[in-house]
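User: Teach me something about this protein's shape.
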Amino acid sequence: MKQNEAKFDRLPNPAQLPVLPLRDVVVYPHMVIPLFVGREKSIHALDLAMQSNKRIVLIAQKSAEVDEPGAGDLYQVGTLSSVLQMLRLPDGTVKVLVEGGQRVNIHHFTETQACFIAEVSLLESVLDDSAAQEVQALMRSLLNTFDQYIKLNKKIPGEVLTSVSSIEDPSRLADTISAHMTLKLDDKQKILEIQDLRLRLEQLLALVEGEIDILQVEKRIRGRVKQQMEKSQREYYLNEQMKAIQKELGDLEDAPNEIEDLSQRIEKAGMPKAAKAKAQAELNKLKMMSPMSAEATVVRNYVDWLVNVPWKKRTKIHQDLAEAEKILEADHYGLEKVKERILEYLAVQQRARKLKGPILCLVGPPGVGKTSLGRSIARATNRKFVRMSLGGVRDEAEIRGHRRTYIGSLPGKILQNLAKVGVRNPLFLFDEIDKMSMDFRGDPSSALLEVLDPEQNNTFNDHYLEVDFDLSDVMFVATANSLNIPPPLLDRMEVIRIPGYTEDEKLNIAIRYLMPKQLSNNGLKKGELAIEEEAIRDTIRFYTRESGVRNLEREIAKICRKVVKEVTLRPVEGPITVTSDLLNKYLGVRRFRYGLAEEQDQVGQVNGLAWTEIGGELLRIEAALVPGKGKLIHTGHLGEVMRESIQAALTVVRSRAERLGVDPDFHQKVDIHIHVPEGATPKDGPSAGVGMCTALVSTLTRIPARASVAMTGEITLRGEVLPIGGLKEKLLAAHRGSIATVIIPEENRKDLVEIPDNILAKLDVRPVRWIDQVLEIALQTLPAPKPREAVETDAAVAATDANGKSGGGLEGVRPH
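Assistant: First, the predicted structure itself:
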């Protein structure tokens, strides 16, 4: 080797030598490498070298893609090498074995027709004497690092380290290690070009350490992948073993393949084209996945939901009107409007085969049978019944489902319930639709807009399934206690109001439905207990005060339980009969007073009528005068609208002061206090306006208001009585309270047709238009206009009475 170097040292400087361009390889000094040469110019260069001492310059191309490189495509530093062996192959290429000698610097390229000729000079390595120790340290570090590299890179045999460790020359050490490294071409060329030995060793050390880092990352990745592969292969192997064992035991004999099973279910599901294409695509994806992977579970669940949704299965709707009417009458007493609407739907269904299902909203107080009516409608039409409670629902995903990107995602409750019931045309009851709310997770009432719109719900798109589903065959029924429903949602539904039951209706319901049900629930046989009709009527009057019959059913259940205890402890012969006199024994003391007509007429006390979510209520309104400076006080948890009604009523009284015989300046001399009892209950609305006005006039004129009269109506500043809502519930409340006369606005006269005849027969309903008509009916006597002096005297007396008597203007006066 040293003879070869000495031979290169005798080279003329500069010298003209042929050039062999190399692709993707850098040849270092002392490196022996075989090359396959196929380009014509390169073969000519080799021939020329063989003719002149076998010397040739090996230079790397900057880009391997260039077939005919020019001077600019070659680096400026190469390796002067000698050709050790040359062999021409049959295909025209040449195999050549070369040995690197020394670095050379290219001064100039001469391109002939045959090959490149380069003018070169030797490039000596530079070593500063002061850096000798540092170079020795770098060599040791390089050897240690290269040792680690060999251990990580299995492609390099271990013997290489032994041969490299014996090299003492720093330049040769660097070149030998570089030759064995898997480096980029640019990095290899850079090592070749560095003359300073210390810098060359430092650069190479950095490159080796970088490669070690990459190899360590690759090793970690390989280990992780191998571990995962081993785990999945182990699970697959164990699963196959379990299947084989179960098959031997007969558990899985002729069991279908899961993929085949899903494929068959997709074919039988009757999906539309888009849904079927989606299901097939997901199934094909599932085939390519490992059965144990998490993604396979997600896809399998999705395909399961797709095939479980009822795409074509439906029940046959019964269209026998007589049978449907019989079922509705058997299940519920009264509720004529709802029953009539259902029968209309069935009648039209007979004529028009494809009719979009109606969307009914049953609005009424608790306990009147809205939910049970939904079940009866389903039974009458032969639809399967699905109920979804919306009370407290505040997440839009409850309706539309979650997208599949979320862990544990599911379709919305609508499609879940349809899959559960198994048909596409059930009766779907949205219970308590007025109790929905919204928060940061979305507004479920807005999501229901599409569901409850017959023009849109034939393409309902669930976030989970991501395919359209036709909901137009579903009959939707919603229930609510109030119309506290967003207007766009309310607009999509046909509202049917279910008012509270009358006393007679409650009596019939108790005898026909509640009594047999509770006798059965409490284990009483037929003939063991009898409750007289009068006892049930007294239970309704004195132990319940409600629009529905829930509390009435509880009271009947209480009687049944006590009778069961009696019969068990002390058996008796014959049935136990519960009469009105025995109600105290079974139900305790009476909870409510029934009837107000026997009470005395009072100054400043008026019976108003209010509508609440649980039905109509009697509302007592009280007014009193106290000495003061005209302050208006209102108590009883009144809402803003009701407080404004008091202001309007006061203005009406002041504008009619002289006509009513009241001091026009009364509001400056006394404080007026208006109170509505049961202060813990919030009250609001304009319909108590006429009651407020009547109470004020009664207090100021000291004329008692009739206790047997109740009133409702909004009042204007001119004294006109405006219409109100909830008339039926208010009249039922008046009937429950034994009110004899009810004053209503004239414009509500048309609503009287909806009131049961037996209620109208017991009430004297007086439609009015002006407050003067109200005062004429409600007060014992009409106020008479007085001279101004007399009015002032009366006002002073009223204020004195208010101050001196504990009644505060509410003293009892015998009716004339």
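Now, about its shape. Confidence is low (pLDDT under 50) at residues 1-6, 797-816. The longest strand covers residues 94-111. If you'd like, I can walk through any region in more detail.
User: That's plenty for now, thanks!
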